[in-house]
Amino acid sequence: MLIINLFIYYSIIFINLCNSFTIKIYPDNIFTWNIVNKQPSFLPSFGPIIINSKLGSLYVGAKGNLFRLWLFNINDTSSNNLFSHRKFEINLEEREECLKMGNSERECDFWIKQIFIKSNGDLLFCSSQSMKPQLGLVDGNSLLDKQELHTQIGICSQHEGLNTTAIYVEEGNPNGLPAIYSGIRTGLSLENQLIYRPPLMNFEGNREIYPALRTPIYDSNWLNEPQFVGSFSFGPYIYFFFREQLTAANCNNNKGSVISRIARLCKNDLGGKQVLKQVWTSFVKANLNCSLNGFSFNQIQSVTQIEENNQNNNNLFYSTFIAAENTPYQTSAICVFSLLEINKVFDNGPFLEQQSAESGCWATIPAEQISIEGRRPGTCQEDSRQLSDEDLHFAKQHLLMGEQIQSLGNTPIFHKGQTLLTKIIATTIITEKKRENNNKVLLFVYEKRENVLFKILHKIKEGNAYLLAKYELNEKINLMAILPGEYIYLTNEKRVEQYRIGQCSAYGKNCRNCVLDPFCSWSIPRGECFYLESTHSTSPGWLTDETSIFSCSELIKPTELNVFPGDSLHLKCFGDENKIKWIFNGEKVFESDKYILTKNGGLIFLNLTESLSGVWTCLENENKLVEYLIKVDGENCTKPKSLEQFHAVQREWCRKMDNYRNNLSKWQNLYEQTNEENIKSCPIKEDKLTQFEQLNNGNSNIL
């Protein structure tokens, strides 16, 4: 029983070490399939999710189903004005044939893969049924058909787990026709690697106006084993974010290693007349550099976009990256890229040019040496079919930029070891004064290994990022969406979850993170965090923004901890562990055998002594986060007067007993080894006994 109690005691310490700063949060609202269909064993596998804020609707795709939910309460299915549901029946004969072909049951089911919102509110969606990709059009309110499902290759993949992207664009395309642009891999063995635009049809959808455009087949200089993570439309261009394997970008790079890219092409591209016929003439790509002191985070995982609220009319791309998978410890980072800087590289930067077909090496060609005036590769033409063969051959040979696109500040805004940061969403916040370049961005980033959601505040002007919270989730998530200033929505295999962005009560007694959060404010009298109300900024007793951080430090009172010699103790400190430091009685704390500095910024004492009594303060950037007053009571330890004191004495006794047993075992092993030697060799035996006495280190009194 004693050993069991000790195991439980130290297990609690270990659990706290691993999860000390993860906050358990609960959804404000939940939508499950059981709400409308009483099949508790059925897993709908909720997936793609998209918001139409004008209609107040959240659209969610699932296995064989499409849902329209009310943005402000996804659980409310009481009215047709708030909720719609469409069930899709699968063709059983086609499904049976699909299974006979060796495909899995999941691959042969009906799945909603992509959802697009048209300007009139209708929904365009891409689905997979029995390994056949299909395109459908439904009314945005009723979800009734406006166009029957029809086969459409190249928009969404029937293969499970493939990284693809697609975007629906209504403006800027040839003749003003709507178009879908996709990054995808097709074919039985995924040999077709595409950035693709399907044929442009007339507005009635019954006649082809322009043929499809794509990247060429079997040319790895365009795309080489790409994994797409996002696509965006700005002005006359479409942008694709992806990672791919290197062919041989220059002689110094290792062929086959993975690198992150961004590609740009023109919406009005029609391909060439003979050369590059039905192939992009405006395709160019560049490397994305997310690195820290020369250490590269080379694999982009996800990307989201926000508009910078100032006079620059700039857009920022927030991206998650991981280091190469063969590194000893998985490391992740978040880097930010500016659209202005991206276009500057594409419009003015140098290109790479292959020196010779035999060498496989590429060299940088300065921008001023590009002699084709007005026809720089990557620029948009009124009619690309009028370009000369010489122009097109030159463009075909100059796809890759010779200059990398650097992240904002030339460094990640956030990085963390032993993490796998994947999906990311963001919302902008402007301070009440709305000063130029004083923007703040709130990020939610999914950490896949521990199934937690990081909440990070980025101050663009200052270049600083703050980890506000880590939220523990119930299920592994599939996708995320955000309604700016209001809610985040998560989909998983079982349900759709809705969370208020603030989650202010989860901060508990953490005043500093509460006031950093743009959606929260701190009540001085109550010592708690509340959702920010407009009246708080003018009412006494409230701390409402980051200018109040120093006031938070003044409000922090030491937490008094009365302990006994031999006790174990965990001091928690929530903050950015890269910026945290501990102070003991005014002196900085360094590594020691008396305590453990945890990776999360805390301190663990395994064997307290009276010398550790005093004030322990945790600081982040010199701001006080938490303070503890430890009192190690050695006087009353030998004569316990309470159950708590008795337990402390018991733990110390058990520690000494474990030490004695360990030393006794070592002595027994040494004694047995001695017997195997010459029994007359007394000095050896005496040495062994002396060694045992040293190991025992004066603990024989416990006998």
Automatic annotation (TrEMBL):
- Note the superkingdom of the native organism: Eukaryota
Q: Give the residue spans that cross the bilayer.
A: none
One record GO biological process: semaphorin-plexin signaling pathway
Q: What InterPro entries does the annotation carry?
A: Ig-like_dom_sf, Ig-like_fold, Semap_dom, Semap_dom_sf, Semaphorin, WD40/YVTN_repeat-like_dom_sf
Question: From the UniProt record, which GO molecular function terms apply?
Answer: chemorepellent activity; semaphorin receptor binding
Q: Give the originating organism.
A: Meloidogyne enterolobii (Root-knot nematode worm)
Q: Which Pfam families match?
A: Sema (PF01403)
The entry's family comment says:
Belongs to the semaphorin family.
A cellular component term from Gene Ontology for this protein is: plasma membrane
- Domain Sema: where? 22-501
Specify the protein name.
Sema domain-containing protein
